[in-house]
Amino acid sequence: SPSLLVGKHDGSMAMIDLCSAPTNRNIASVLVTVQRSVAGSGRATSLPSHCAGITSMKWYPHDNGLFVTGSADQTMRVWDTASMQSAFCLRIPASNQLMPGVHDIGMSKVSADHSLVALACSDTKIPVIDLRCGGIIHSFLGHSDHVTSVDWSPSDKNTIIS
After folding, report:
1. The dihedral of CA 54, 100, 93, 61: what is its sign?
2. Average pLDDT along the chain
3. Tens digit of pLDDT for each residue in 52-79?
4. Which regions of the chain are under pLDDT 70?
5. How far out from the chain centre does Cα 5 lie?
6. How far apart are CA 154 and CA 119, in angstroms?
């Protein structure tokens, strides 16, 4: 069933089953639902999460049972919705202590032959992580300050924009 992921500034997050959520589409009532669900009303599943604010959340484009989060705690995590556990965590050291952490996550929606994740971080580099090996396989250079957003081209599996 369709689900909504919600990440918060304190590092907590919830996955809401939209079929059992209230039909009111007002965002304020959805956020109240998240608060009550995490407290135990049963409409959402509270996930053990990051120790600082969640800055980015994306469904993995080729497996709807996985999603990826980035956080100000300087980590990127891959989550398995079947077990509701973090399946993988990678720490990305911060070179800029004023804005530490992972700011954005980019994954190719057109490539089914690679499992690469690009990160916008507090650094001037864009690390590219291969989820199959669990490490940084490349870093793109060229920015003079921290990177705040990153994405893959919607038509070319080998092109990243930042």
Report:
1. positive
2. 78
3. 888 999 998 888 888 999 998 888 999 8
4. 1, 20-48, 95-99
5. 10
6. 17
Query: 122-149 as b/e, with b when 16 or more CB fall inside 10 Å?
Result: bbbbbbbbebeeeeeeeeeeeeeebbee
Structure tokens belonging to residue 17: 């089953």
Instruction: Convert 138-150 into a string of H (helix), E (strand) and C (coil).
Output: EEECCCCCCCCCC
Model pTM score: 0.78
Strands, sheet with 85-91, edge to edge from the N-terminal-most edge strand: 54-59, 66-71, 75-80, 85-91
Dig out the tokens for 145 from the structure: 């300050």
Torsion of CA 46, 52, 58, 59, to 10 degrees: -30
